[in-house]
Design goal:
329 residues; Rossmann fold; elongated
Length: 329
């Protein structure tokens, strides 16, 4: 794999409940209907991440256009609009709902307690949020993939500190709609290493300019962007603003570093959707979501953009480059 090889981090989640290799026989002639709910655009980036979900289903005998159809509700939407879209899927009597983002999971949870919901959520704690009774036995109609590691905040700050050793104030761009769990984790990690956090609240692109102005006023030394669909869709704009304001930056999503962001470290969204495809297949084969253990991402990526580092006058330490999965030169 070479010096800059891929790494897979296996996150312990407790014992997964076994699902028989030969599940209930698929009903002859049955056309399964999967609803897909996401408060973001149905663009090329989403499709690239979603394709592994479909491949995971194909690998298990469920093929779009043959015995599987999709009901897509993928578009920018506020929480109220998400609830309307989720209710549409319930009325369409889909066999399962794939909910990508905390807003989508929350909307699906409000819309139905009967239809299985497979989450792809990089922000929520499923138990604290009330989506599940426990990770091993969710107990309701919601299971899937969640990333709720408060310790991720410490890793992001550590990477920023590596590339900007004089870091004392880190601006954190966050969306209040995703809750405080990740932000609280970042602030706890920051206090332990003597870094002050400057909160930059934003719900979408209209809030970016004033947020970055606040970062300048507060004399922030670096920028951490917490994950949310709105920020993911606008990652290139955020990267450009970070360069304009001379802020070393990090975001959970690899495309951020591909599009001029300095660094990206977080779970592979394509990998999460692939795992979600496996969970969805179990449900279609007869497994009950209340007994399907919630999974965590198994694949994480660090991407470093040396072009952006040069534009900011930074030298990326070898310790970071050796850990990176990809380096953009």
């Amino acid at each position: 794999m070479g010096r800059v090889g891929r790494r897979q981090f296996l996150i312990a989640t407790g014992a997964l409940l076994a699902v028989p290799l030969v599940a209930k026989a698929q009903r002859a002639g049955k056309i399964w209907r999967i609803g897909v709910l996401r408060p973001g655009p149905d663009d090329a980036v989403f499709r690239q991440n979603f394709d592994p979900f479909l491949q995971a289903l194909r690998d298990r005998g469920f093929t779009d256009g043959k015995n599987l159809t999709l009901e897509l509700r993928v578009r920018p939407a506020n929480p109220q609009e998400m609830l309307v879209l989720a209710s549409e899927l319930v009325r369409a009597r889909v066999d399962a709902i794939v909910a990508a983002s905390p807003a989508a999971v929350s909307a699906a949870a409000k819309a139905t307690t009967q239809i299985p919901v497979v989450a792809v959520d990089t922000e929520s704690d499923p138990v604290a949020s009330g989506f599940a009774a426990s990770l091993a036995r969710p107990g309701g109609n919601i299971t899937g993939l969640f990333l709720d590691f408060p310790e991720m905040g410490g890793k992001w700050l550590q990477l920023l500190k590596e590339v900007a050793p004089k870091l004392t104030r880190a601006a954190v761009l966050w969306d209040p709609a995703i809750g405080h769990a990740l932000l609280n984790g970042v602030e706890a990690a920051a206090s332990s290493i003597g870094v002050r956090i400057v909160r930059l609240e934003a719900r979408g692109p209209a809030d970016f300019a004033p947020a970055f102005q606040s970062a300048a006023t507060e004399k922030a030394d670096a920028l951490l962007v917490l994950g949310t669909p709105a920020f993911y869709s606008a990652h290139r704009e955020i990267a450009d603003l970070a360069i304009k304001h001379r802020l070393p930056s990090i975001m959970p999503y690899p495309p951020f570093a591909d599009d001029r962001g300095l660094m990206a470290y977080g779970p592979s969204l394509a990998g999460m959707f692939r795992q979600a495809g496996g969970v969805t297949a179990k449900i279609l084969q007869g497994a009950r979501p209340k007994e399907i253990a919630i999974e965590r991402p198994t694949r994480f990526e660090l991407v470093v953009n040396l072009k952006t580092a040069s534009a900011l006058g930074l030298t990326i330490p070898q310790t970071v480059l050796l850990f990176a999965d990809r380096v953009i030169e």
